[in-house]
């Protein structure tokens, strides 16, 4: 049972990675990375029970904390970047920053 | 461990992971950024509740359950906050939701009708 | 009053430390008290401008609200599950404005998070007492604007 759940969560993480690679905007990528992180928390919790090592749950909690702070940090960075570019060029819309950045 | 509890908790965990999987599919196939957040938020609401709830049932009354409850409470507080920060940052940067532009909406609807 | 709050935060943090650590030796406990005091000091520095009084009735009203929210989450999860797996033409995304009926910070945060937590509706902007939400379907937007959630939140923490 636990293994089925772990595989489903792993597939979801692969889907999130696909969305992170496809983009198209920066925000899609941040969304995908955030999703990847929260799914890691769930995967650790499920694997802790599957392997019978429930002390792994501490790692899950630490991972949840780091992921949340990380997402906020990236968003703050992109916000600052956007503000700086706006004051440089004086343009109103941020399309060139949020638009396509294909790999 | 009681056999019935084992079965119920296993069913909860699998059901939760299916919700998570559906959210992953949603995040991949939704048409624009804001609707993709809805797909991703599917993985952040009932999925973790069912998965961690099922594991709590398996752990019984112990320190492990308290830790699981802490993880669940933390996820329930932070994931909507992160979603809001993300959506608001995108909105402030000028990424408009699809329906705000009437012409693109009509275009999308025409496309749907053509393909249907 | 500030000293009392500081002490309360330290006691709460130290309880969590004891629960998590499971290692009860003197140097570890000393380290625990020190780090709890450091975190409490940082927290009070961060929360300086926010002097909202803690409402003790939340302790029993909040779990009650969570139960109701869980029910809402089940319903909306199943709806969004069908939308995600179904055809795209079923989507009709709209932006709506919701009136928050209690405008203190805690109630606004609770309402905003609850809206995001039920799939199909997503908070994208918060004003003083208005929340702009992105809805996946017109039906979800209508049930949000009917205001059941906002009334419940106002009952949990009235102004």
From TrEMBL, chain A:
Record keywords, A-Z: Cell membrane, Membrane, Transmembrane, Transmembrane helix, Transport
GO CC annotation terms, alphabetical: plasma membrane
Locations listed in the record: Cell membrane
Membrane topology classification: Multi-pass membrane protein
Bilayer-spanning residue ranges: 30-49, 56-77
Primary site of residence: membrane
Pfam families for this protein: MrpF_PhaF
GO molecular function: sodium:proton antiporter activity
Similarity annotation: Belongs to the CPA3 antiporters (TC 2.A.63) subunit F family.
Protein name according to UniProt: pH regulation protein F
Organism whose genome encodes this protein: Kineobactrum sediminis
Automatic annotation (TrEMBL), chain B:
UniProt keyword terms in alphabetical order: Membrane, Transmembrane, Transmembrane helix
Statement: the UniProt record of this protein carries the keyword Transmembrane: yes
Membrane spanning residue stretches: 7-29, 49-75
Keyword tRNA-binding among record annotations: no
Protein name (Swiss-Prot/TrEMBL): Sodium:proton antiporter
InterPro entries: PhaG_MnhG_YufB
Highest taxon in the source lineage: Bacteria
Record lineage: Bacteria, Pseudomonadati, Pseudomonadota, Gammaproteobacteria, Cellvibrionales
NCBIfam families named among the record's database cross-references: CPA3_mnhG_phaG
One of the record's GO molecular function terms: sodium:proton antiporter activity
A Pfam family this chain is assigned to: PhaG_MnhG_YufB
TrEMBL record, chain C:
Record's subcellular location: Cell membrane
Pfam family for this entry, one: MNHE
Transmembrane portions of the chain: 28-44
Keywords: Cell membrane, Membrane, Transmembrane, Transmembrane helix
Gene Ontology cellular-component annotations: plasma membrane
Primary subcellular site in the record, as a coarse category: membrane
Membrane topology, from the record: Multi-pass membrane protein
Lineage top rank: taxon: Bacteria
GO molecular function, one term: monoatomic cation transmembrane transporter activity
Protein family: Belongs to the CPA3 antiporters (TC 2.A.63) subunit E family.
PANTHER family tied to this protein: NA(+)/H(+) ANTIPORTER SUBUNIT E1 (PTHR34584), NA(+)_H(+) ANTIPORTER SUBUNIT E1 (PTHR34584:SF1)
Protein name as it appears in the record: Sodium:proton antiporter
